[in-house]
């Protein structure tokens, strides 16, 4: 897995994504597809809102990891949904980022270059705690099992398979230690 992305790399990927959206809009305008233009703009605004909401979860390292997921794991077609109704757990931030990195390094080893993959990521925070759920579609050939959260971790990890999709959830609750 690569190291953390530099600010220059982050800006490069972001510009690329925005240029793709603008090209799509221009193409649809040229073809007279007004509904397609409206939908492309609404989709871009929705993505921006969810990415912005990640900044309010109070877990900056985890937020950056989630925001750069699509760039670091281009095998997945990614959708992101964020419901931030309170801060996450800053004390669990670095540990959560490291766990997600380990988890997806294992998953990436089992991906086929010939298959299509989707990742729906849902992040929720509220006064009781926080969670990040990954619903992954596509064949994941796991040579080794998925990692488990350490007993002293400030979160738990659960995974299951439903309708051919791998569903993984990292759940944290706020505790005073």
Descriptive notes:
The chain is α+β, with helices and mostly antiparallel strands. About 40% of the residues lie in helices and about 25% in strands. The protein has five helices and five strands; from the N terminus they run ααααβαββββ. Strands 1-2-3-5-4 form a five-stranded mixed beta sheet. Strand 1 (about 75-85), helix 5 (about 95-110) and strand 2 form a beta-alpha-beta unit. The radius of gyration is 17 Å and the shape is globular.
Largest sheet: 5 strands, mixed
Whole-Å distance between the termini?
A: 32 Å
Counting DSSP E segments of at least 2 residues, the number of strands comes to 5
Low-pLDDT stretches: none
Query: What is the number of helices?
Result: 5
Helix content: 40-55%
The radius of gyration is 17 Å
Dominant shape: globular
- Tell me the strand percentage band: 15-25%
Average pLDDT reading: 85
Helix/strand order, N-terminal first: HHHHEHEEEE
Widest sheet, order of strands = 1-2-3-5-4
Structural class comes to alpha+beta
Summarize the structure.
With 177 residues, the chain is α+β, with helices and mostly antiparallel strands. The chain has helices spanning 7-30, 34-54, 60-67, 69-72, 93-109, and strands at 76-84, 117-125, 129-137, 155-162, 165-173. Strand 1 (76-84), helix 5 (93-109) and strand 2 (117-125) form a beta-alpha-beta unit.
């Amino acid at each position: 897995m690569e190291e953390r992305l530099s600010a220059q790399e982050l800006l490069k990927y972001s510009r690329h994504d925005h240029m793709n959206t603008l090209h799509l809009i221009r193409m649809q305008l040229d073809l007279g597809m007004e509904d397609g233009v409206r939908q492309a703009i609404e989709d871009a605004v929705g993505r921006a809102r969810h990415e912005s909401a990640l900044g309010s979860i109070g877990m900056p390292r985890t937020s950056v990891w989630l925001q750069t997921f699509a760039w670091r794991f281009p095998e997945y077609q990614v959708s992101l949904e964020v419901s931030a109704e309170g801060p996450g757990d800053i004390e669990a931030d670095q540990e959560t980022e490291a766990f997600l990195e380990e988890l997806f390094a294992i998953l990436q080893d089992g991906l086929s270059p010939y298959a299509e993959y989707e990742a729906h990521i849902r992040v929720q925070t509220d006064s009781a705690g926080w969670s990040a759920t990954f619903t992954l579609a596509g064949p994941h050939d796991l040579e080794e099992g998925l990692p488990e959260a350490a007993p002293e971790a400030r979160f738990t990890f659960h995974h299951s398979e439903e309708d051919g999709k791998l569903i993984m959830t990292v759940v944290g609750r706020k505790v005073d230690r």
